[in-house]
Specification:
The complex is a heterodimer. Chain A has seven helices and no strands. Chain A is mainly α. Chain A has two domains: 59 residues, no CATH class; 75 residues, Arc Repressor Mutant, subunit A (Orthogonal Bundle). Chain B is 83% helix and 0% strand. Chain B starts with a helix and ends with a helix. The relative contact order of chain B is 0.16. The model of chain B has no long low-confidence stretch (mean pLDDT 87). The chains are: A mainly alpha, B mainly alpha. Chain B: This is Putative zinc-finger domain-containing protein. Chain B: Keywords: Transcription, Transcription regulation.
């Protein structure tokens, strides 16, 4: 979990450790969920940790500076070739989505904004953001699966 | 349940669902096998998107 959370915190280990601790505390308070099957429980824990990171970023006022999917040749020299390759494929897959779909992913997850915040910025109802995100993630996953990046 | 409640699974998986909606969606999740399956299949996407985010941060 620490490894996953570290990616979300942009490799800030101290912050990631705090997030994991807070996540496990919340899990403890939601003991009913601990009866869920393992893979679902894992997915749930990740959603909890992500909300903690996004809230924390907002409080700190730290946001990713650049959110357009980077051009493939602008991606920094790899310290981990596999990860960088995956990032190139993901950036390319994002560019391949319809404009509506790409936009909702950019305006929410990639900018640490919630659905309601993105809805205001985009001038569309929150329900539309949710539906677009749903179809956007489904098609993103389809493309990534085809390219061997997602399972 | 309307179709739109199932759509919330994507925002939930990304952790961008607003606090007020999280609790209601989790109650839905308790009862909805379809959303549980989709949550599992969507749960690796945020990690993959983090790669795009951090490479764009580094590129600056």
């Amino acid at each position: 979990m620490l490894r996953q959370v570290r990616q979300t915190t942009g490799n800030d280990l101290q912050w990631a450790e705090d997030v994991v601790q807070e996540t496990l505390l919340r899990a403890w308070r939601n003991a009913a969920k601990l009866t869920w099957e393992r893979s679902l429980l894992w997915a749930w824990l990740l959603t909890v940790s992500r909300r903690i990171v996004i809230d924390g970023r907002r409080r700190r006022g730290v946001r990713p500076r650049e959110v357009e999917p980077p051009e493939a040749d602008s991606i920094a020299v790899p310290d981990d070739a596999d990860k960088t390759l995956a990032a190139i494929v993901v950036a390319d897959a994002l560019r391949g989505l319809s404009a509506d779909h790409r936009e909702v992913i950019e305006q929410t997850y990639l900018r640490d904004r919630t659905v309601n915040e993105a809805a205001v910025i985009l001038g569309i109802p929150p329900g539309t953001v949710k539906s677009r995100l749903y179809y956007a993630l489904r098609s993103l996953r389809g493309v990534l699966k085809e390219r061997g990046v997602a399972s | 349940m309307s179709e739109s409640s199932h759509h919330e699974v994507a925002a939930y998986a990304l952790g961008v669902l607003d606090d007020g909606d999280v609790e209601a969606f989790e109650r839905h999740l308790d009862a909805c096998e379809r959303c549980r399956q989709e949550l599992k299949t969507m749960s690796e996407l945020p990690g993959l998107l983090d790669g795009v985010k951090s490479s764009s941060e580094r590129a600056n």
